[in-house]
Amino acid sequence: MSISLLEKYLPDQCLPHLKKWFGGYPIHIKITRGRNSKLGDYRKMPDKSHQITINSTLQPQLFFFVLTHELAHLLAFENFGHRISPHGAEWKHTFRTMLLESISVYAEDLKPIIFKFLKSPKANFMSSPDLVRYFHIEDYEDETSYIEDLDVKDRFIYRKQIYIIEEKRKKNYLCTQLDTDKKYIFKPLARVEKIS
């Protein structure tokens, strides 16, 4: 996929950054349906080309942010060698540099959140509560809540199953699925529907 074909997924003013980062690397970008497990993925292919997959359902600024994350893998491996840790110091340095270079692409109210994120870039988007909150404001109907906004013993629906919150454990929540009596750990920013 050429950079220009990506335009409909991207915010304005980001193509110059992408052209610089893409350089002469053979990159195949696949736009996928929304995946719950991940927003994007990077892989070096056997023929030495690079493959990046990104969910088509992402808002333009988040799409660009995820694309930057995945391109940082490519550039970190190319610049520091393939023995580095995928989300180690070299990747963090590369991702941080790329975000700073492209900060003008992001909305004014998002820039402070990205600057905060830059202090220690996380491998998993869901580990950055401020970014998760920012990008999920409009994604859910009013009846959904973050699990961290509920109380112990509250009941909620998650993926058509009913759960009850048993206890808070450090950052996460221990919950029981009522039909099976099985215990599950939920992250604080899991989106659930509270049962009144």
Tell me briefly what this model is.
By secondary structure, the protein is of the alpha+beta class.
Blueprint (SSEs and pairs):
Layout: H1 15-22, E1 27-32, E2 40-44, E3 50-55, H2 60-80, H3 89-101, H4 111-118, H5 129-136, E4 144-146, E5 155-158, E6 161-169, E7 172-177, E8 183-186, E9 191-195
Helix pairs in contact: 2-3
Description:
The protein has 196 residues and is of the alpha+beta class. It has two domains: 3-136, Arc Repressor Mutant, subunit A (Orthogonal Bundle); 144-195, Roll (SH3 type barrels). The protein contains five helices and nine strands; from the N terminus they run αβββααααββββββ. The strands form two sheets. The protein has a six-stranded antiparallel sheet, with no helix packed on it. The chain has a three-stranded mixed sheet with strand order 1-3-2, covered by helices on one side. α2 (60-80) crosses α3. It is elongated and about 55 Å long. Residues 137-142 have low confidence and may be disordered.
Query: Helix/strand-derived class?
Result: alpha+beta
Which oligomeric state applies?
A: single chain
Report low-confidence residues grouped into runs of 5 or more. Answer: 137-142
- The helix tally amounts to 5
Radius of gyration, taken over Cα atoms and rounded to an integer in Å: 19 Å
Helix content: 25-40%
Question: Which sequence of strands runs across the widest sheet?
Answer: 4-9-5-6-7-8
Q: Sheet bearing the most strands, described?
A: 6 strands, antiparallel
Our measurement of the CA-to-CA distance between the termini, rounded to an integer number of angstroms, reads 48 Å
Structural domains: how many: 2
**Order of helical and strand elements:** HEEEHHHHEEEEEE
Our estimate of the beta-strand percent is 15-25%
CATH class group of the largest domain: Mainly Alpha
Question: What's the architecture of the largest domain in CATH terms?
Answer: Orthogonal Bundle
**Which topology of the largest domain does CATH recognise?**
Arc Repressor Mutant, subunit A
- Gross morphology: elongated
The chain-level mean pLDDT equals: 88
| Count of individual beta strands | 9
